[in-house]
Amino acid sequence: MSFLYLAYGSNMLTERLRHRCPSARPIGTALVPGHALGFTKPSVDRSGKATLIAERAQGIHTPGVLFEIEEADLPNLDKAEGAGKGYDRLDAFEVVHAGTTDPVMVTTYLAIETRAHLTPYDWYLALVIAGAHEHELDAEHIRALKEIGYQIDGDAARLSRREALRALTAHGHDDVHALLRPSG
Known about the structure:
Elements: E1 2-7, H1 14-20, E2 25-33, E3 35-42, E4 48-54, E5 61-70, H2 74-81, E6 87-97, E7 103-111, H3 122-134, H4 139-146, H5 159-170, H6 176-180
Helix pairs in contact: 3-4, 3-5
């Protein structure tokens, strides 16, 4: 058995997600109507991680990537996402399959707690941007990601940083800061 998973943050980068869930297979993109992307989920490393934030304004939506994942990988995904600790897992979250008006029920994770004024680390934001490029999300979304303020992670030994750099390199991104530079 498998399930559909919506990635909207660092797990959009296939290499990153496959490190956590070897069975992950991208099957397309989706839009999350009525939700904006924020980096307001507090992390134990003192940075902001991605979450979806419900918005009442018309026309607000966030793109993401749909993956099919074997249920045997769900405990690994829960652990990586901090299910029940940092994020709540939602197993019946409605999105719209890109290019259609068809609603799709997916599994995704939303922050339990959010805090304004958090910023992601450079490597974390680079993962999100690399994933958006890999799956050819719209240019406006990528441009908006590149405008997000970030902080440089001074801890070169941080395991999550090293794993992120490995995933980025595997996708041909040797220069994290090149991904972060505004286009044009």
